[in-house]
Amino acid sequence: MRKTYAEVPGVSIGSRSPSSWNILWRELVRDRLAFVSLLFLGIVILLVYGISFVLDQEQIVSIDLFALKKPPSAEHWLGTDYGGRDVFGQLIIGTRNSLSIGIIVTVLTGLIGVLIGLISGYFGGTVDNIFMRFVDFFMILPTLMIVIAFVTAVPKYNVVSFSLIMTAFLWMGIARLIRSKALQERELDYVQASKTLGSSHLKIMISQVLPNLSSIIIVTMTLNLAANIGLESGLSFLGFGFPESTPSLGTLVSYARDPQTLESRWWIWLPASVLILVLMLCINNVGQALKRATDARQRKG
Amino acid sequence: MSFLEVKDLKVHFPSRGGILSKKIPPVRAVDGINLSIEEGQTYGLVGESGSGKTTTGRAIIGLNAITSGSVLFEGYDLAKGGRRSHLDVRRDIQMIFQDPYSSLNPKKRVLDIIAEPLRNFERLSPMEEKLRVQQLLEQVGMSPEMIYKYPHEFSGGQRQRIGIARAVALKPKLVIADEPVSALDVSVQAQVLNFMKDIQQEMKLTYLLISHDLGIIRHMCNHIGIMYKGRYVEQGTTADIFGNPQHIYTKRLITAIPNIDPLQRDKQHIYREAVREEYERAHDSYFDNEGFALPLKPITKTHLAALPERG
Amino acid sequence: MWRTVARRMVIMIPQIFLLSILVFLMAKAMPGDALTGLLDPSIDPASLEAQRERLGLNNPWQVQYWDWITKAFQGDFGQSFRFKMPVSDLIGQRMMNTIWLSIVTLILTYLIAIPLGITSGRYNDTWADRFITGYTYLGFAAPLFIFALLMLWIFGFHFGWFPTGGSVEPGMKPGTLEYVLSKFYHLLLPALSMALITTVTTVQLLRSEIIDTKQKDFIVTARAKGASESRVYNRHILRNSLLPIAAFFGYEITGLIGGTVFIESIYSYPGMGELFLSSISLRDFSVVTALVLLYGAASIIGALISDITLSAVDPRIRIK
């Protein structure tokens, strides 16, 4: 890809060269499935955040004794749950909450993972050894159980503490990946050159090495976003995710743990299940397309 | 006091040993070398790969930790303290790297690459900075309009010019050039070398030129040091080394330079054979039991060689 | 080889130690202690305090930790207040169910992965391959709990082909053939739901291994020597492609740990995961800590197995 640019001087003379962002974007648009997925995601995000802005959240999560377990109707598009709460409204709010926490956790784990991976890989040696033993320990933890146990152990449990707990046990994967890439980068002459030019370690890490890792960070974080939404809804499904008053997509699916609801009131849990599935599929599509775009061998065009 | 004086420099790399494996003796990459360079001259460091010539250069500029010895640059001992000590002295020493492909950050524009040292040491406004970079580009024979391009848009020779522009941006006094042209096409090599000579005159630079190519060394250097397995085998002026080589290793290196004059071919061949025979016969007396070079002995005032005791 | 194993074992010891401290502190942080549930609230505070003193609950935490860990290593995790029986007996019953579930899942995983991976890799870019790749694409994105729920809904409730809960028909005598068959019958749908999702990565791996191996020089050589197509596949490509798959066996174990919790909860299958969830809801913390410790040990062993198999298969990975 890059080579073709050098060989076609007419394209780039006088103009700025395409940055890696542009290349990623172009590849994404060219991949039809990924582009449709991205479009769909954009629409869902706009709808969900838009509608939930208008919706009266208080009214939706409060119990209405006159409308228990109603099937879908004109008033309640997807019926009501055992507390008489409108399922469609919960679906909108739940999607918003699931997306929000997925994004928050992805960003936080990304920050921690990139920081630790970068320091560990850039310095190597003893620093790397210490950091990696630390990461190894976190890697062997049975994450799901520990997160559940922490969720129950934490006093004053709320959305913030939930995202912090999730973050605390999910940053290792990206840290390992960034570390191995940083280990490769630090051997390259441009890093050595920066040292001889008087740049500090911090400056080299942030402004020299980090830009070379940007595409892999974007790819990993996209794929992590899907995984985090899946994990959050899974935890909420088991009853250890969001607090009761804050519905998530997993909360709606968890109604299906009641055999009667599972068997005969599909409108409560099936839409949320399908939505989770489709969201994760779309985010994965985008992530895989980005991954192909960063790997020159797999690029489509 | 010399401009740069390296005294008994040693760089040892510890061999990796874990919890369960036993200690291995360190690799002696550079094992006690002395050299001094006068201002405005070019000093050539020659040797085969693994001889420690690159490590010597990297130790002087602070990329490799110095095990012992001293590096005196205008009287400051750079061996004491870490890479970040003597920062204001170190800005006077810069480096040109071997590989023009990996030595320029692929994600940075030419402007950012050349401006990196300026941003570290000089406070310039963006306009001034841009102007300086454009001047530097012109100085290395490139169009100043190239500042917004990325490294991959240039050829190897052009990249190396960008690398040189970056190295001289701070108007350094000493430039360490580590195999500056060995990654380039032969046709471009001479261009870049001659350009390096021009810029040396223009900016009154001192070069430490590291190369395995004796042809380049002869073309560029006033003084030469020949390294083998971390030690010097011979040291002297260009005339000393090429006119009167003493050590058998030096002799073999020099006879290996191809000669394009067909009339000399037979003479050259006979001489080469003679040197080869001497090398095989006398090899053991020129190196110690472990295969390292012997201590240097003075031959003339400028010429030293690691020769065995006579008799 | 043995050096690698020994080295990995050495790394394991501090890991287990750290894990136990973490689990212990976590249990301490949880609201209430062993007595809160054990005694009825009408008892007067003074005798409660005396009880605490007797049980050592007022000692400094490191003393309590030492007490707990030494007992734990002898298999004594204390009492479950909910079931009024020793934790180790309680877990013992459930553990067998989870182990069976895991074994059947693993077998199904490979039974699905190997034929699909081989077909997809050998005939890549055909319709069969596109179909299989589509399945792996879906399976990679689908969360396990949603897929399992759909399976239960469709095959358990809608068609009624499989039981929808429990590990065995009530009233069966252990040891009889019916008992064993009923156990297997109850296992099948949960195990299949999990296997269909976990197998996806193995299928993808096997496919890309085969496609990679197909282009290697030694395969070209084998063909050039006139080896038949089936011989090329069976003798040369498969042997080289299956090795990396074997090496990921340890990772499969680690992956199962989280999966069984969801599966057991959805299918009300009485295993460790289901016990874990109900114990944590009822604040039966001695059971919870014991289970987290066991799961942690399982995941350490899983990592150990994968490291060892990896180094056995690929000498380059061996720790020097």
TrEMBL record, chain A:
Keywords of the record: Cell membrane, Membrane, Transmembrane, Transmembrane helix, Transport
TM regions (residue ranges): 33-55, 99-122, 134-153, 159-178, 209-231, 266-290
PANTHER family assigned to the protein according to its UniProt record, in alphabetical order: D,D-DIPEPTIDE TRANSPORT SYSTEM PERMEASE PROTEIN DDPC-RELATED, OLIGOPEPTIDE TRANSPORT SYSTEM PERMEASE PROTEIN APPC
Topology in membrane: Multi-pass membrane protein
Species name: Paenibacillus harenae
Name of one Pfam family that matches: BPD_transp_1
InterPro entries: BP-dependent_transpt_permease (IPR050366), MetI-like (IPR000515), MetI-like_sf (IPR035906)
Compartment annotation: Cell membrane
The keyword Glycosyltransferase is assigned to this record: no
Main location: membrane
KW Transmembrane (keyword) present: yes
PROSITE patterns per UniProt: ABC_TM1 (PS50928)
Gene3D superfamilies in alphabetical order: MetI-like
Protein's recorded name: Peptide/nickel transport system permease protein
Family per similarity comment: Belongs to the binding-protein-dependent transport system permease family.
CDD domains: TM_PBP2
ABC transmembrane type-1 domain segment(s): 95-287
UniProtKB/TrEMBL annotation, chain C:
InterPro entries, A to Z: BPD_transp_1_N (IPR045621), MetI-like (IPR000515), MetI-like_sf (IPR035906)
Pfam families the UniProt entry points to: BPD_transp_1, BPD_transp_1_N
Keywords of this entry: Cell membrane, Membrane, Transmembrane, Transmembrane helix, Transport
Membrane topology: Multi-pass membrane protein
Record field: transmembrane: 99-118, 138-164, 184-206, 241-267, 287-310
Location relative to the cell: Cell membrane
Ranges where the ABC transmembrane type-1 domain occurs: 95-306
NCBIfam families, A to Z: Opp4B (NF045472)
Recorded family membership: Belongs to the binding-protein-dependent transport system permease family.
Protein name as annotated: Peptide/nickel transport system permease protein
Species assigned in the record: Paenibacillus harenae
